[in-house]
Write a structure and sequence with these properties.
493 residues; alpha/beta; 11-stranded mixed sheet; 18 strands; 36% helix
């Protein structure tokens, strides 16, 4: 065992003990975070506008601070972007994480000196948790690759801004610098396809042990590695045994990945966002990710099926239930208050609190009242692929409300790696899995409101070409699993 491996094991034990301390007292931990946030933000403009000096309890907070999304918080953010101090949080942010996709264009999510360390610690602790549970440490001596955005940052009114993954690249600890790939120069390449080609050239003859990134973009990297070497990735990288990912569900990709790698590898799921690092997989045996209750974030939860009603009930950590779809609401030491990040979660465990990401509150299908969410379509496809050689590269789902003939249906646009012999039978398997999960969908099929779903094949690299056409190829960009309209799929047809 190397010195680095030995040190990693000791550090992992220490962090595990600290994690147990707060995760064993979840309600008390969140109450402490809540009180600290209110105390530190009392003198900010937001705090004054929302009477923070009178807030003693969560009930007070819910009365004074409504749930907002970015558009509704934007007047405050705009003042922060202009360089004003003490608006959402004390002082000024040290960074803005710049993201896209809102109706008003780019979003500028503040990162403060108080919030930034938790992004770094959470990613580190996820790996240390894996080490503590498995005892595996050999990977720390190999090369590690993190497929991420460019670390080149812009500046706006004295505050640096860029993609979160590019900002985080500036915080890689010294003990990982020698192991980290790709090179700084390659990481700075903006064009994603050019960047992946350069990463392949730099890494294909290295001792890669850890690979991290969004599955769809890591898949592109693996395919290019295989094209160059003519070997499975696992044969090329004999010591590659840990894949770290976030952003999307890995399960629809798992079979394809194992085919490209040539064997199974361990994986760690992360739940990071520009707004905060919320959870990581702390167990290889138990489902879900440990919700980080001691990371400067106070969480609220609203049942997804009540979210668009007037004044939906807001739940705190001690009130949540298993297997209920909740919209995740947060207040943080970055200056976000009762903020809707758009993600939905379900709890898989309450001791400790573990979650899975079930989808996006705006990404669903309910054209007929079926309330279909991302988790359901991903699970249905996974079940249909079990015990077959069918492999899927990418997919998305949309309703077909006005077919040329017959009843309406859900249309699944799938890019196959290995196609099923009988595509109608495969569609029926997916449909049956959907009906088992979603009683509303089943009622619509039984009641002849909808007919069995229809699969439309997408040509090889069709989804990559679509993402490229809208300027969202690579990085942290993700294809929505489902939409309640046909804006995406009409460009794939």
């Amino acid at each position: 065992m190397s010195i680095k491996s030995f040190a990693a094991k000791l550090f992992a034990t220490r962090i595990h003990k600290k994690t147990l301390q707060w995760s064993s007292h979840p309600v008390e931990t969140q109450q402490k975070v809540f009180a600290d946030l209110i105390r530190q933000a009392k003198e900010t403009q937001f705090g004054k506008d929302h009477h923070f000096e009178t807030i003693k309890t969560f009930s007070d907070f819910a009365q004074h601070v409504p749930i907002r999304d970015y558009e509704e918080l934007k007047p405050y953010v705009d003042r922060v972007v202009k360089g004003e101090e003490d608006i959402l949080w004390k002082g000024k942010p040290i960074y803005f994480a710049k993201t896209s996709g809102t109706t008003s264009g780019a979003k500028y999510i503040p990162l403060t000196k108080e919030s930034m360390p938790f992004h770094i610690q959470a990613a580190r602790n996820a790996i240390l948790s894996y080490i503590h549970e498995t005892g595996k440490t050999n990977f720390v001596d190999g090369k590690m690759i993190f497929l991420q955005g460019s670390p080149i940052l812009e500046e706006k009114n004295g505050i640096k801004l860029g993609r979160l993954s590019g900002i985080v690249a500036h915080f890689v600890p010294k003990y990982l610098q020698k192991n980290r790939m790709p090179s700084w120069e390659t990481n700075c390449i903006e064009d994603w396809e050019t960047k992946v080609d350069a990463i392949v050239e730099e890494t294909y003859n290295q001792n890669m042990s850890v690979i991290s990134g969004i599955p769809s973009w890591v898949q592109m990297y693996f395919e290019k590695l295989q094209q160059k070497s003519g070997k499975p990735v696992g044969e090329l990288f004999k010591n590659f045994n840990l894949f770290i990912y976030g952003g999307v569900n890995y399960e629809p990709y798992r079979a394809k990945f194992e085919s490209l790698i040539g064997r199974k590898v361990d994986s760690i799921e992360l739940f990071p966002a520009s707004e905060g690092f919320f959870a990581y997989q702390d167990s290889q045996k138990d489902k879900g990710m440990l919700l980080l209750l001691n990371s400067g974030i106070f969480y609220e939860f609203v049942k997804a099926d009540e979210f668009f009603t007037k004044n939906p009930r807001r739940y705190t950590i001690g009130e949540v239930e298993l297997n209920v779809n909740y919209v995740l609401i947060l207040s943080s030491n970055a200056g976000l208050w009762a903020y809707n990040i758009g993600d939905t979660v379900q709890f898989t465990s309450l001791k400790p609190y573990r979650v899975i990401v079930s989808g996006r509150i705006k990404h669903y299908i309910s054209a007929f009242g079926e309330h279909v969410i991302a988790k359901e379509v991903e699970t249905a496809l996974q079940q249909a692929m079990e015990n077959t050689n069918v492999r899927v590269n990418e997919f998305t789902v949309a309703p077909q409300i006005t077919p040329k003939e017959g009843l309406p249906y859900h249309e699944w646009f799938i890019e196959f790696e290995n196609e099923p012999e009988k595509i109608e039978e495969f569609a029926l398997q997916i449909d049956n899995a959907m009906r088992q999960q979603n009683v509303y969908y089943d009622d619509l099929i039984v009641g002849n409101v909808l007919r069995t779903l229809v699969i439309t094949k997408v040509s090889k690299n069709g989804f990559q070409e679509y993402m490229k056409s809208i300027g969202k190829l690579g990085g942290q960009n993700k294809l929505p699993r489902l939409s309640n309209d046909r804006k995406i799929v009409d460009q794939l047809s």
